[in-house]
Amino acid sequence: MSQANTTDITTYMQSVGKQARAASRALAAANTGDKNSALMAIHDELVNAKPDILAANKIDMDNGHKNELDSALLDRLELNEARFNAMLQGLKDVASLPDPIGEVTDMTYQPSGIHLGKMRVPLGVVGMIYESRPNVTLEAASLALKSGNAIILRGGSEAFESNQAIAKCIIKGLSQTDLSEHSVQVLQTTDRAAVGELITMTEYVDVIVPRGGKGLIERISNDARVPVIKHLDGNCHTFIDSDADPEIAIKVSVNAKTHRYGTCNTMETLLIDASIAKDLLPKIATAIIEADDAMQLRVDESAESILADVITLNGHLSAATSEDWDTEYLAPILAVKVVDGIDEAIEHINTHGSHHTDVIITDNYTKSQRFIREVDSASVMINASSRFADGFEYGLGAEIGISTDKIHARGPVGLEGLTSQKWIVYGHGEVRA
Amino acid sequence: MSQANTTDITTYMQSVGKQARAASRALAAANTGDKNSALMAIHDELVNAKPDILAANKIDMDNGHKNELDSALLDRLELNEARFNAMLQGLKDVASLPDPIGEVTDMTYQPSGIHLGKMRVPLGVVGMIYESRPNVTLEAASLALKSGNAIILRGGSEAFESNQAIAKCIIKGLSQTDLSEHSVQVLQTTDRAAVGELITMTEYVDVIVPRGGKGLIERISNDARVPVIKHLDGNCHTFIDSDADPEIAIKVSVNAKTHRYGTCNTMETLLIDASIAKDLLPKIATAIIEADDAMQLRVDESAESILADVITLNGHLSAATSEDWDTEYLAPILAVKVVDGIDEAIEHINTHGSHHTDVIITDNYTKSQRFIREVDSASVMINASSRFADGFEYGLGAEIGISTDKIHARGPVGLEGLTSQKWIVYGHGEVRA
């Protein structure tokens, strides 16, 4: 298929779409037990096929080395023993989650006599586009099945052999159940034209979930006609208010910045109230540097005048430029700004942040409530590390992704993000007057 | 502005967008009393300016006659005494609705110690694009204000004077309150380039709500980068099951087809089970023709063989083509098809319907529940007229529109459709392990 021309790709994708739509109808009506059995059948097939999958992954890795892929990409591509077992455990975890489908809420009688409520239903067909990590193939398939959705998967070309080997197990597992083998379809082509078809087949695909770098996600969002649940930047702030508990301020700042760098909920900018900055900022800055000696602080003028004489910070300071306030570093770099109270803090966050996760450290009731209400972010926190903005820490059991959209799903998205609610009406022969 | 070039339009729209974003921040923090006061201040301004508004409308009507607009469009454009009063009443109704903003749900402690929940918040900035009816200007503005959103309104050029006159009252009303005058902005240009800017300014606009014909909505959906809450076809079905109560079948069919023709929840196709069609279909068809002698029935072969001899149907029957199953007539025309049981009915509805509103008439428990679960539509009903699919009949108080999307909002959309939920975390110094 890789060499197929565009007409062939269109025909191929139309047939994939049609099959997915048909499978989604059956899946929407499947019961929870059948869906869980399918997940466990896939689990058993994976256990049996472990040598084949690891061998397929070795082909991808060898090709990756030959093609001189960078080491971070090769790392994500690799399936070793530990990752394979984690993948199996993840599948069992999804099987044990409660089924979101069928929940009926808000049933009330209306003046006309009809009994009206909402029923949670699958979205239908999910399209997933992702890069190197082959375990995403299984994770996405299991989340889709559990939530009653058919899924079309398009992984990266560098993981082609691994993904096909995993797909074989999924199809084998499905074939032992009453669910359609087309419930999960891993594309058999890496032709880019297939992505173009996938994100525009509004009659067959209900939502696109891209996973990967910002470039990939922006490209997909721009070209898609199908709605996209997307995750862009995480430019997260911690604001140390004048009424902050100093110990909490230090502890949370260190955790939010240094716990991990590559994650979207890592603090990128520290804001601190001018009235306490002279006393508290040196302590926070020192603690962060102590946690990681490689840390660089990009400081505004006020912060610099406070920190310049602190000997331990020697070599860790540089002047912030206006660009720093808008940057997600994903690295041991922290922007630091002294602000004149909560109004400037909120204004800065709403203007320069990415509306992902922002934190206030304070012991003042009024300011804590203003921050919660006025900061326009997917997660807003008081006295806690931004690192908590995560599907597992939020108790969702599994994470489809983290959404930076306001529409449909916001912040960490669990199985519910792959569902919708339809209105249901139980009547007794009512007609409209 | 109408003669401005594209650069000017871009500059103008950027400034409108920036002002809307700033106003939305203040609105998000406004309390319910202030929002209601603003609505009542606008109400009073409208009462005072009634002669001016009606005079402005007369200019639009005169221009419309001169430009030979069709009579349906002229009818929608006209603001008479009754419509003006209905508009005022609508404003008071919105003021009396409960405020959706600030509702906190699902607060639970997580194992880490954080107290986690969700808070309902405004989307931010709404862009509304609509055609002739000037009362939409006020309706949209009031719904946006009540739900804490700033709004940018772009009405049809044929209603320009009316919309500007109403906008004046809105601004005057807002100026008497603490809310920003930029909370509601009616565009001062009818240049089409402004629409192009509005639907792509993702940094300033959070959602687009188009109202108008299918052509307008498809165009906007195709070009938009901002998410769109859209309403396309309403190709609604009523399926008369073999276990239907005949009286309910007749009563509901007549109401669903003949109550109104131009509405999206009107029945367009009647499906009837073969086993009862011979007895019941002539009765239903006759009752529908009795209700409106102008009715045309487009029937499949089986229905024709049953109905051909019914004398009262003389001149009302013609053979259905495959196109009929996919058509929203919005007229006294009904497609009729005899199906072989509930499986064929569900398959037909899911394939040919528009996923808007579909009804089963049955007294059988199992089939009623299968229909509810398996029909993939925004509203699915048992033994009730599809005409109930409406924000007011569903008790939403006001209706932003009816969504045919599955993402974010589905079916009738009330104030809640203009809101989102953010995660809130109340911590006590927790950090991630």
TrEMBL record, chains A, B:
Residues 18-288, 325-389 form the Aldehyde dehydrogenase domain. GO terms for molecular function: glutamate-5-semialdehyde dehydrogenase activity; NADP binding. Keywords: Amino-acid biosynthesis, Cytoplasm, NADP, Oxidoreductase, Proline biosynthesis. It is found in: Cytoplasm. Pathway: Amino-acid biosynthesis; L-proline biosynthesis; L-glutamate 5-semialdehyde from L-glutamate: step 2/2. Transmembrane segments: none annotated. SUPFAM superfamilies: ALDH-like. It catalyses: L-glutamate 5-semialdehyde + phosphate + NADP(+) = L-glutamyl 5-phosphate + NADPH + H(+). It comes from the Bacteria. GO terms for biological process: L-proline biosynthetic process. GO terms for cellular component: cytoplasm. Coiled coil: none annotated. Pfam families: Aldedh (PF00171). Its EC number is 1.2.1.41. Signal peptide: none annotated. PROSITE patterns: PROA (PS01223). Catalyzes the NADPH-dependent reduction of L-glutamate 5-phosphate into L-glutamate 5-semialdehyde and phosphate. The product spontaneously undergoes cyclization to form 1-pyrroline-5-carboxylate. Belongs to the gamma-glutamyl phosphate reductase family. This is Gamma-glutamyl phosphate reductase. It comes from Psychrobacter pacificensis.
